[in-house]
Amino acid sequence: MAVGRSGGRAVREGLLIAAALAGWAVPLDAQLSVRISAGVRYSSALVHDSIVTPFAVRPALAPALACTVVAPLQRGWAVQAMLDGSSSQLVRRDAGGSTTDLGRLSTATFTVGLRHRVRARFAATGAVGALKYFPSEDRGIFRLGSGPLAGVGMLALDYRPPLGANVGLAVEARYDVHAFTTPALEQEGFASPQLVHRVSLSLRAGAGRL
Amino acid sequence: MNARRVVPRETLLAFCALALACEPSAPVRDCTGCIYSFADTVPPNTRLVFHWPAARLPVRFYADPRGAMPTLVALGVASWQGQFLYGEFSGTVVSDSSHADVIVTWLSGVPADVPPDAGPAQDACAGATTDPTAVFRDSSANVLHVALTPKAGFTDGQVAACLRRVVIHELGHALGLLRESTFPDDMMNETPTVTAPSVRDRRTIEVLYHTGPTVAPPPR
Lengths: 210, 220
Known about the structure:
The complex is a heterodimer.
Chain A: H1 3-21, E1 26-29, E2 32-43, E3 47-51, E4 53-59, E5 62-72, E6 77-94, E7 99-117, E8 122-135, E9 150-159, E10 170-180, H2 183-188, E11 194-206
Antiparallel strand pairs in A: 1-2, 2-5, 2-11, 3-4, 4-6, 5-6, 6-7, 7-8, 8-9, 9-10, 10-11
Chain B: H1 3-21, E1 40-42, E2 46-48, E3 59-63, H2 69-81, E4 91-94, E5 102-106, E6 125-129, H3 132-138, E7 144-150, H4 156-175, H5 199-209
Parallel strand pairs in B: 3-4, 3-5, 5-7
Antiparallel strand pairs in B: 1-2, 6-7
């Protein structure tokens, strides 16, 4: 499998979804707003292992979609709940550079956090929640299932350009981190979970000043 | 305290500290005696290592349609496929022997398709597999053959239980485990008495599929 080609497709899919959603903003009422974002996500390796030679297993660049509900508080603060999903191929990358496709892997993440306007057009978010992996097949590292929910911590920074202010258009960078393991990896001898870092860049549309 | 400025910065610092403190780690495996030899040797010093390359996956298995053979072959393929964590091997059962990489047939009579006996393991059947290194290195053939046969003097249930073990053992040879294990609790022991590959079998075939082969099947 060519990871680069898959990554390019993920970027295109993300941009197409973002363009389709750009005009969609749903103000539920004066105190609550819904934002939709679409973009691409990079994930660090889920597994580092060495059998004869070292290799790593990680998801390819993935289109990412999220829905966020925001309720403003006082003094530029808001509370938010976000449901986020992404899906891409899981790839084993050997030390020599060869790759092996391990099937499709999807994730769903739910977080609750606080959002704060830090400058005129910038807002920062900190959130915690839970993440679940959904492999397309119960094979390999998922042969005994994907294990329980993983705790996740998330930080985000978004910028609302003057252009597109009428639909609440924003560019959002998100970073999250969680610990990854599966029952099969534990059975194999992985004593501790692997810390997985994910970064996504999204276009967001939605109502509300925060 | 000015919460507007401090909270985001502290949160960011906490995440950075967490990320730095938790580097990904490979599993710690005590591998003393955890694998057995999988390679053959042609004197004086030619080492024969065979496994199915990624370009030939999934390996296509054809099962003699008589008796319990389709079930046995599906069991054997699933047993080995389930040992791999990282997609090193996959197999599929095909219905057309002309499109198979491995053909599994009965050598003699077809035994009754009955539930396996739950008693102690009996040497109630036999199996044979063509040597992959001989087939792919020394001949123009591109198919491996596996044959199973019941032995006389045992109950149908004892033969059925034996065939379940021996089909996994023989498919292990077809996957490249060319040698027998000397450990009695391994599936690749000369006379297997276990019903599934052991941890040592798994470790061995993992290492085999991450070792550069010296013998390869012809391109499909």
